[in-house]
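2024-03-11 09:14:02 DEBUG pipeline.ingest accepted 1 chain
2024-03-11 09:14:02 DEBUG pipeline.ingest length=145
2024-03-11 09:14:03 DEBUG pipeline.predict start
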Amino acid sequence: MGKITAPVVLIEDDPDDQEFIKEAFRNLNLPNELLCFFDGKSFIDYLSNTEESPFVILCNLNMQGMNGFEIRQKIADTPELKRKSIPFIFLTTDTRPSSIFKAYDAIVQGYVIKGDTYAKLERSLRLIMDYWTLCCHPGHESPSL
């Protein structure tokens, strides 16, 4: 079983957004290492070649090359990756209802808007981490309350 301190994966192709998210993680003093990927291919290669089961995946939606929907589909279509049961959350600026519906059709565990300020981003990350720390889900130990 995975641990609540397992790494968090961030798939984000914008270097500035990646830096803001890294900074927020540092400020939140989370026990999880943040593994960052600029593209879906390098992330899928990592996930396919590690025994580790990340705690949660935070994925931008609109990226060059493999977009967030394609990354989600690749996980769903690959039994070894799907079996890891990693919560998949879109962290995006895309507020279009069509994107939100498409995301939930792809069976994601969350669709979070990054927010227009650093404080909103940090608050969103704190809420995501608190929620998944409390949740029981396959692949991770039950939290002790």
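2024-03-11 09:14:41 DEBUG pipeline.report Residues 8-112 form a domain with the Rossmann fold fold (CATH 3.40.50.2300).
2024-03-11 09:14:41 DEBUG pipeline.predict end
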